[in-house]
Design a protein that fits this description.
33% helix; seven-stranded antiparallel β-sheet; alpha+beta; 3 domains; single chain; Tubulin-tyrosine ligase; D-amino Acid Aminotransferase, Chain A, domain 1; TTL/TTLL_fam
């Protein structure tokens, strides 16, 4: 009997020890969460649960409503989330502009060399009329020199959502009036303002809490083309739990379905290369699977041209470092050691080889929409988890094979660029 009791006690202790070592994780819905589940489930003692309550690791599309006070080493567990508390300082279009502007002013850099000319119009500001007139003066000046195409962007959306193009004042007025109709249909608290556009035309707008700002950005009218079609570049950047930041060695080029035509601004399939837009075109994937090509494919295309891909990558890394350094005053407040972030940086190249930052995205798309992304994204995530989750939870390193052409399976493809101090 004593032997049986001793054995039962041992079993209970073993069970308790196993449970103590287990890491319970929660993965929210959307953005290919199933892939994240698969990669995490292969780690020893990692177990999924269906709610974030009492989870050790929380993977969500946003950090909305998350209480960062619960992060860190509690008496019984570590709680980690996949978003930095203050990532918005560079991932919100409005904040990115002001963050870079302040940094460039102090460092005596020309911001117009980094991002296309941008105006932030704060509709709830006392100087909205002045800001609008600054834009209109610049807009009028540009109309004498180019097609004068501009983008109107919501400050906090990605994947091409809500972007509109315009190249004359009437179109701009129409877009502003449509914004007004949206606000008038809202049940939220509204405020009315009247804007004078050209000393003749006036627009009366009703704005709600969600429509206080608009981003107006100059469209890049002379992009470098790939087989006569526009493209942009998506690369991934990781900020780990100790505020080291990294650049993933492989990204991809996203291509438009239709040939570039600067005279046709109504056709978004020509101008917006986001997969969320292009996938609705009837000829999507006609030229490349998923309208995407790899770095190596672009390198072959640029072999006898300028710029070379290596030069482009070096410039992208410089801009990544600059954006993170510009936001250090908020990002370095994320020193609770139990948060990290994978960011999606978007760049464009003009015909002269100049690299332009377009935007920085939280929750970048990780849908495996092509054979290329089925190869890159699992490796990108797993290598990021090796630098973050496996360090936080002291996970035993297992041989997990996510092969990428040209690299060894045990090679981590995240290159460290620096540390936020």
């Amino acid at each position: 009997m004593k032997s049986q009791q001793f054995s039962s006690t041992q079993d209970l202790r073993a069970t308790f020890t196993t449970l103590k070592r287990q890491t319970f994780f929660y993965v929210g819905e959307g953005n290919n969460g199933e892939l994240v589940r698969q990669i995490l489930s292969k780690r020893p003692n990692f177990q999924e649960q269906r709610t974030p309550f009492n989870a050790h690791l929380i993977w969500k599309q946003s950090n909305k409503y998350f209480n960062y006070f619960q992060l860190g080493q509690l008496k019984s567990k570590k709680v980690t989330i996949n978003h930095l508390e203050h990532h918005y300082v560079i991932t919100n279009k409005n904040n990115l502009f002001h963050t870079l502007e302040n940094y460039c002013n102090k460092a005596k850099l020309n911001m117009d060399d980094l991002v296309p000319k941008t105006f932030i119009i704060n509709l709830d500001s006392g100087h909205v009329q002045t800001d609008l007139m600054k834009f209109l003066e610049y807009f009028t000046q540009c109309s004498k020199q180019s097609q004068n195409i501009w983008l109107m962007k919501p400050p906090d959306l990605n994947r091409g959502n809500g972007i509109k193009l315009f190249n004359d004042l009437d179109q701009f007025v129409e877009l502003m009036e449509n914004l007004n109709k949206k606000a008038q249909s809202s049940v939220k608290q509204q405020k009315s303002i009247t804007l004078t556009l050209d000393n003749k035309r006036k627009i009366k707008l009703s704005i709600d809490d969600q429509d206080k700002q608009i981003v107006l950005q100059k469209y890049l009218e002379t992009p470098l083309l790939y087989n006569q079609r526009k493209f942009d570049i998506r690369v991934w950047v990781l900020i780990d739990h100790k505020l080291n930041y990294y650049f993933f060695r492989e990204g991809y080029f996203r291509l438009a379905t239709e040939r570039f035509d600067i005279s046709n601004i109504r056709n978004l399939y020509i101008h917006l290369t986001n997969n969320a837009i292009q996938k609705h075109h009837p000829y999507y994937g006609k030229y490349e699977i998923g309208n995407q090509i790899s770095f190596s494919e672009m390198q072959r295309y640029l072999k006898f041209q300028k710029p070379q891909l290596n030069t482009i990558i070096l410039e992208m890394k410089k801009i990544v470092k600059l954006t993170i350094e510009s936001g250090y005053h908020k990002l370095n407040e994320c020193r609770k050691n139990f948060q990290f972030e994978i960011l999606g940086y978007d760049f464009m190249i003009d015909k002269d080889g100049h690299v332009w930052l377009i935007e920085v995205n939280t929750n970048p798309c990780i849908e495996e929409s092509s054979p290329l992304l089925k190869q890159l994204i699992p490796r990108m995530l797993n290598d990021a988890f090796k630098l973050t989750i496996d360090q936080i939870y002291e996970t035993e390193q297992q041989a997990q094979t996510y092969p990428v052409n040209g690299y060894k399976c045990d090679e981590n493809l995240w290159d460290k660029l620096g540390i936020i101090q």
